[in-house]
Amino acid sequence: MSYLNSKWKDYHTQPLRPRSYASQREFEADWVSGLRRRYRISQEALAAIAAVSVTTVQNWENPLSKKAIAGHNQDRLRDIERDLWIKAHVTLINPCPPTIRALYDLMCTGRDESAQALAEHFVSTAHNNDPERARLLHWASLTYSITDPTSHKARLYQQEALQAIGEGDGRLAAAIENEILGYQFEMLMQAPAGSDRTQQARDLMQACERLYARDQQPAYLWNALEVACRAQLPEKELFRLTGQLTDTLGADAVQRRIEAEVPFTAARAVFKTGKAH
After folding, report:
1. Which of 50, 98, 185, 211 has a Cα-to-Cα distance from 163 of 20 to 30 A?
2. What is the CATH number of domain 3-87?
């Protein structure tokens, strides 16, 4: 079965479909244009990567085109999607332990099941107090997310990675923690509304708060507040986090930033009610 035929089949198994399509051709056209949107590349750039003409890419994205996407081009699009995903989500922070390098090499060559099995082994044999545990759990989640971002296994590893955050120290630990937070924030923004997304947001918010408690860096509180605003968590969380920021930075500075930056729009109500102090 060709790659996009497989995607079309998977689409029909989804309980909640983001949109409906009149035909498989319309689905394929939207998939190609969606690939470009996700990774912010132009038709010209995709044409260059796929070694085809811009006209060919335009035909791929035209739902009315009667010319189907050739099987070999579907295979190429599959490989391009994997390469773009890895570049967007995978970072080898040095020093890179052999365990992480092994997972990276397997993912880059499309051996996902081997990467998943190896990740399971590494996680099961790692000590709970291992300073690399959060990093390993994050990479274990990546081995599942690369094939299915909604994977239950990926979500479990993401939760464990967040719970392990804050156990290490030093600049390397901070870099790894920021990588984990950035990735999970991106996944949160892509998740459909519902109880799972709300819990995901709470986990991420609480991880940011733990890092603030450890390092006393207000940036982590701002991150927690952004998560609460964007995920539409209960208003009491906005009041609580804004109050912490106000106690640390002063009401004027906090209000100015909240009023100026769109991600904090939901928190503006805090100052309108006069309860931020």
Report:
1. 98
2. 1.10.260.40
